[in-house]
């Protein structure tokens, strides 16, 4: 048993000391302090190993993901009317390395209420306005929304000249014809956020940080080579983009049909009168 001994010298307290009591049959000595010190050292070493093991058992990517630059995607629709422009902007977080060796591909799903004109895309490609291609086959731009299917478009985004770590993509979209409603004169079209794909010629940390899967796609718009693109996880500004489309009311069907038929008859009659009055029927 160890006990503290207090002593006083010239009115001041002496520092406590630990003195071992002798066991029966053994002399009192300081030999017993060595096992106690060894035991303390072993306990400290065990605690250190436990703390180290706790860090080692943590997920290896947790430290990397904590320092990953955040990827922000903003999707908005420009212009008014039935002919709109879908603008997608992507910004990588501050501190990212040079993106000159990377390509960004946006896989956008087009809902049934919208369509993309492939002939318009071809014209824009010739004018170097945008780089996009339709993925879906058997696509009909004249089909109404209730008979059409969703389609997909691949858009090769371009780097923003005003922002070193920013990309943007542009896509013209158009409203389809919608079925008349009984009460509400408006319908909604929800445009979901796209898939973000990236391919780099050199190693880029953000790929290992946010890559979720690998997708095979053409390396460039007019290239036949296929590259492996990394599907990136990002933070969207808006969950979805909602478009409000005006539609007709079913109670107006009789009125609309009657007026349309009347105008068609009047126009046809005027054309026939002009043909017989000013036409040359000589053989």
Automatic annotation (TrEMBL):
It is found in: Endoplasmic reticulum membrane. Pathway: Glycolipid biosynthesis; glycosylphosphatidylinositol-anchor biosynthesis. It comes from the Eukaryota. It is a single-pass membrane protein. GO terms for cellular component: endoplasmic reticulum membrane. The chain crosses the membrane at residues 259-279. GO terms for biological process: GPI anchor biosynthetic process. It holds the Pfam family PIG-X. Keywords: Endoplasmic reticulum, Glycoprotein, GPI-anchor biosynthesis, Membrane, Transmembrane, Transmembrane helix. InterPro entries: PIG-X/PBN1 (IPR013233), PIGX (IPR040039). Belongs to the PIGX family. Stabilizing subunit of the glycosylphosphatidylinositol-mannosyltransferase I complex which catalyzes the transfer of the first mannose, via an alpha-1,4 bond from a dolichol-phosphate-mannose (Dol-P-Man) to the glucosaminyl acyl phosphatidylinositol (GlcN-(acyl)PI) intermediate to generate alpha-D-Man-(1->4)-alpha-D-GlcN-(1->6)-(1-radyl,2-acyl-sn-glycero-3-phospho)-2-acyl-inositol and participates in the sixth step of the glycosylphosphatidylinositol-anchor biosynthesis. Probably acts by stabilizing the mannosyltransferase PIGM. This is Phosphatidylinositol-glycan biosynthesis class X protein. It comes from Heterocephalus glaber. The gene is Pigx.
């Amino acid at each position: 048993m160890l006990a503290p001994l207090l002593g006083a010298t010239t009115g001041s307290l002496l520092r406590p000391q630990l003195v071992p009591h002798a066991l029966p049959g053994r002399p009192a000595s300081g030999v017993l302090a060595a096992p106690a010190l060894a035991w303390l050292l072993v306990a400290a070493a065990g605690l250190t190993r436990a703390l180290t093991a706790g860090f080692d058992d943590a997920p290896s990517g947790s430290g990397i993901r904590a320092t990953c630059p955040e990827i922000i995607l903003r999707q908005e629709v420009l212009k008014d009317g039935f002919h709109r422009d879908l603008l997608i902007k992507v910004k990588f977080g501050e501190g990212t390395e040079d993106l000159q060796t990377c390509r960004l591909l946006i896989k956008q799903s087009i809902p049934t209420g919208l369509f993309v004109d492939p002939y318009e895309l071809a014209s824009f490609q010739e004018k170097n306005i945008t780089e996009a291609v339709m993925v879906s086959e058997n696509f009909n731009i004249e089909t109404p929304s209730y008979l059409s299917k969703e389609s997909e478009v691949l858009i090769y985004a371009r780097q923003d000249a005003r922002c070193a770590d920013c990309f943007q993509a542009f896509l013209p979209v158009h409203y389809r014809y919608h079925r008349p409603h009984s009460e509400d004169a408006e319908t909604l079209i929800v445009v979901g956020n796209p898939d973000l794909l990236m391919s780099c010629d050199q190693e880029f940390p953000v790929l290992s940080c946010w890559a979720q899967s690998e997708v095979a796609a053409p390396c460039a718009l007019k290239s036949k080579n296929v590259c492996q693109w990394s599907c990136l996880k990002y933070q969207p500004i808006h969950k979805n983009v909602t478009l409000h489309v005006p539609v007709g009311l079913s109670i107006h069907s009789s009125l609309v049909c009657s007026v349309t038929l009347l105008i068609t008859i009047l126009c046809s009659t005027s054309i026939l009168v002009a043909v017989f009055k000013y036409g040359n029927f000589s053989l």
